[in-house]
Design goal:
With 253 residues, the chain is an alpha/beta fold. The chain has helices at 36-42, 65-79, 91-102, 133-141, 152-162, 165-180, 207-216, 232-235, 237-250, and strands at residues 6-8, 11-16, 21-25, 47-51, 84-89, 107-113, 194-199, 220-225. An eight-stranded mixed beta sheet has the order 1-2-4-3-5-6-7-8, with helices on both faces. Helix 4 packs across helix 5. The chain is globular. The two termini are 30 Å apart.
């Protein structure tokens, strides 16, 4: 599904549908394609918004979780959204957590899936290896329970990013920032209703990470999906959307 990417000032985003804002924050690799099933499901009930995070456009000093959270803050203020339903996958979940901690009054609900912020099996300094297609293909496949999810198009997308030396430097900077920015001491401050949707077979942020989030975030509920890796909204969209729909309906005015 192709969506029109709106460009206003420094912001690029998709906005589709009417209703309460449902803001989706993507991770290090992939943006719109990761959320296509989710957008299709919720565009009839919500204003679904996907800001394209400037992973490679910030200066190196601000290429960090907090730098991205500042961008999201500016975007939400620019759009004048109030009481957003915020959803983040992987690094996007980490950015969502930082935003909620800084602006709790602007957030109605929080959904995390495969989020960093407590622990993740980092990509490591050797990743991504430039120019090694098979290596990138294998790494991408490990994101999923079913390696067939790592389609040629998806692998090509990741491979193209890793061919650019500056982008590789920024990916490593963001990965290291995620490790340094551990939120374990602050999560008990989050008071908004929180839904944790996790793949039981996630090897990047394993199930024990989800259980720790559940323990630390007061108003949280945890849902595991079997035979599912690090990106449930891509790998098992029907189950993911059903859980999310039930959660959001409990917190709709």
């Amino acid at each position: 599904m192709e969506y029109e990417i709106k460009k206003e000032g420094k912001f690029e985003y998709v906005e589709i549908g009417q209703g309460e804002p449902l803001v989706l924050l993507h991770g290090l690799f992939g943006a719109l394609s990761n959320f296509s099933d989710l957008v299709e499901k919720f565009k009839t009930s919500h204003k679904v918004v996907v800001p394209i995070l400037p992973l490679f456009d910030l200066d190196i000093l601000h290429t960090s979780v907090t730098g991205l959270a500042k961008y999201v803050t500016q975007f939400i203020e620019y759009k004048e959204y109030d009481k957003v339903n915020l959803l983040g996958n992987s690094l996007g979940g980490h950015v969502a957590l930082v935003y909620v901690l800084q602006h709790p009054e602007r957030v109605k609900s929080l959904t995390l899936t495969g989020s960093s912020g407590l622990f993740e099996n980092a990509m490591g300094d050797s990743y991504p290896k430039r120019g090694d297609y098979d290596y990138i293909k294998n790494k991408t496949a490990l994101t999923f329970y079913d390696p067939a999810m790592a389609t040629t198009a998806l692998v090509d997308e990741v491979f193209e990013i890793t061919r650019n030396r500056l982008k590789v430097i920024k990916i490593i900077a963001l990965a290291k920032s995620a490790i340094r920015n551990n939120l374990g001491e602050e999560l008990n401050q989050i008071k908004v209703p929180t839904c944790l949707i996790w793949g039981k077979n996630d090897t990047v942020t394993p199930p024990f990470v989800a259980e720790e989030f559940k323990k630390l975030i007061p108003q949280s509920e945890l849902h595991f999906i079997d035979k599912c890796g690090h990106a449930p909204m891509m790998e098992v969209p029907l189950e993911f959307n059903e859980i999310l729909s039930t959660f959001l309906s409990k917190h709709t005015n």
